[in-house]
Design brief:
By secondary structure, the protein is mainly β. It has two helices and 22 strands. Strands 2, 3, 4, 5 and 6 form a five-stranded antiparallel beta sheet that branches. Strands 11, 12, 13, 14 and 15 form a five-stranded antiparallel beta sheet that branches.
Amino acid sequence: MKSLKLYVLLAGFIFSLNGYAQDIKAYFESVKFTYTNVSGIGHEKGCTRRDPSDVIKVDDTWYVYYTKVYGRSPGYWGTVWYATSKDEGYSWQEQGEVVGLGGKNKFDSQATFTPNILNANGKYYLYYTGVKPTPGNLKGEFENNSTNDITAIGVTVSDAPEGPFTRISDDPILKVSPEPDKFDSYRVDDAVLLYRNGLYWLYYKGRSRVHGSSGPVHTQMGTAFSKYPEGPFIKLDKPILSGSHEVMLWQQGSGIGALASMSSTFEYAPDGIDFMINKLSVKVENRPIAMGVFRQDLTDSTVKGEGLKWGISMILNGNECYLTRYELVSK
């Protein structure tokens, strides 16, 4: 376990913030976000669509996965649905549910949400977050308390991007840390996948049980590694980006770009880990919320350094959420 972590760390330490990373900073400072309403997964009265996945393209079709629920405000409700586009994400056709609720008393029997996708070894792996009704609640209801309503990350697999997706296990592949003072002892959520240095990286957001009742302000990003897309995953066991309630990542040059949600800043890590040491903190105006990125590397691991171009993000509209298309353009 320790040797695997050491390999991942050493693989990226050949870079520094000087030179090339400064070019990345100049690039981040030169761009801005614009938005376009989309059809098919846009605003619908009484319906919430939120937390879109990264976007993939298979043949002539783009795919996005997201959480959907009717008649409830945003929160720990819903299941995973997907939609397809033929025109690079401007118009979408909703196709249906792909990850429903887990079995009774399983970690995902209350809701499945915040999905993400990866193609590896000829199969499509759909990762998602699950939560179950509050343990000990006599009515089997979900309280959303800050003590024992923990989340976990599961994975399903399919031969095709449209499914059917089958759970690899009824158990999660990533759980909260048992020590209450660890940064991810209360929440692990919002998986983003990356294949780098011969390993599958699973980035996620974590929150400590110590900070459970204070809301997402203490959320930090972590990462875990595996030789296989279905795990087992080994946590780096330390936070790598603070103020990151939404995990937003992509390949930027030789490193990894991120958008820290709480500070609304572009960040960059040449090694994919040390965002807080190599801190660029380029302020972002009008940033996307809970954005997914169009990433060709998710279906073709030979694609490197594609950068951030466009994707799907979320708009909060009172008690409803819907999806929109964003694009990064020059200022």
